[in-house]
Amino acid sequence: MSPVVGTVLLVAIAVALSALMAAVTFGTGGPREPAPDVVLELEQTDRPVAHELVVEGGDTLVGEKVEFRGTADEDPLAGRLRAGESVTVYPVEDTVRVVWFGEYGTTQILATFDPDPDLPL
């Protein structure tokens, strides 16, 4: 094998390894799934402790991608929740958060609420 062929092979291997390292470091996947753009409101009800989480507008919430923190049931959505729909939640902490889970372990807090402090928690 001549020195020219050896040099070409060495450069080709270096380029291939550089491309592989760049792909691993920066990711090769396409664009990641964006969090839903949604307007949420937490409203008191006439029942003790119960609140209604209302989707005022925006995207649809998908139950398996949303978790409620600070409520008795972290997964109160059985399916989808669209604009104008609501779900009953029972706060058990001073702060209620609606957390969205995307692909690759990404999370985003969609909303944070402070339930009525006069209600027993």
How would you describe this protein?
By secondary structure, the chain is of the alpha+beta class. It folds into two domains: 1-30; 38-113, Immunoglobulin-like (Sandwich), CATH 2.60.40. Helices cover 20% and strands 33% of the residues. The protein is built from one helix and eight strands, in the order H-E-E-E-E-E-E-E-E. It has one helix spanning 3-26; strands spanning 38-44, 51-58, 61-62, 66-69, 80-81, 86-89, 96-101, 107-113. A three-stranded antiparallel sheet has the order 1-2-6, with no helix packed on it. Strand 1 and strand 2 form a beta hairpin. The protein starts with a helix and ends in an 8-residue tail after the last strand. The mean pLDDT is 85.
Mean pLDDT over the residues = 85
In the predicted model, the low-confidence regions spanning at least 5 consecutive residues are none
Apparent shape: rod-shaped
Cα distance spanning the termini: 80 Å
Estimate the helix proportion, in percent. 10-25%
Task: Please give the largest β-sheet.
Answer: 3 strands, antiparallel
Number of helices: 1
Number of strands: 8
CATH architecture of the largest domain: Sandwich
CA radius of gyration: 24 Å
Question: How many discrete domains?
Answer: 2
Strands ordered across the widest β-sheet: 1-2-6
